[in-house]
Amino acid sequence: MSIAENILYFDAQLRNTPCRLVAVSKTHPAEKVMEAYNAGHRLFGENKVQELIEKRDLLPHDIAWHLIGHLQTNKVKYIAEFIDTIQSVDSLKLLIEINRRAEMFGRTMPINCLLQISIADEETKYGMSYDEAVALLQSDDYRQMKYISVTGVMGIATNTTDENKLREEFRYLRGCFQNLKETFFFAKESFKEISLGMTSDWQLAVAEGSTMIRVGSGIFGERNYSK
Ligand SMILES: *Cc1c(COP(=O)(O)O)cnc(C)c1O
Question: List-wise, which residues carry N6-(pyridoxal phosphate)lysine (predicted)?
């Protein structure tokens, strides 16, 4: 299927769900992003700052860009002016810098941030523990932030086809979301996102309550390197 057909397919699949599609365009050129754009899609994800800013310059500015990969503190300044959502917030230090740079750019809309929580067994994956996320939200630094909005959680599941294992990890993240919601965001509608699911497991993720699936190869085709 073409990129446009894939976009329409996902639109149809997600129509009666609360879940949105983040089209992950990493490694694919701007022309391919444009094909999805022309099919009506406006929400795209990239995992590297350099690649993101190059594509952003080439593409229409009504695209909502999500950063989904690990973000170094010293690179926040390159994206803080325009980024819609940073899905990969994994420390208080990073969040402080995001808030600081958003303020410097005089943003009128806050930068949406998801707390990345580690749910997979591989220790190499970035992300906070649930307790670290709690500590972040309890901190005085966090309470004073005016230029960011914590809108939910994100997780990267173990790379496996074992459905039970995936289900367990998805449910764990959903439990984290619900606890954080009750503790810190009670009655705050802005805290609503559970970013879970990729090409291989998005259906399961939607069934387990994902509100954002991040699909790359399922839309744009295989990448020439695996990332
Ligand atoms: C690349 C990437 C995806 C998309 O992976 P696919 O298997 O191509 O759908 C999703 N989430 C993150 C964090 C990624 O880096």
Answer: 26
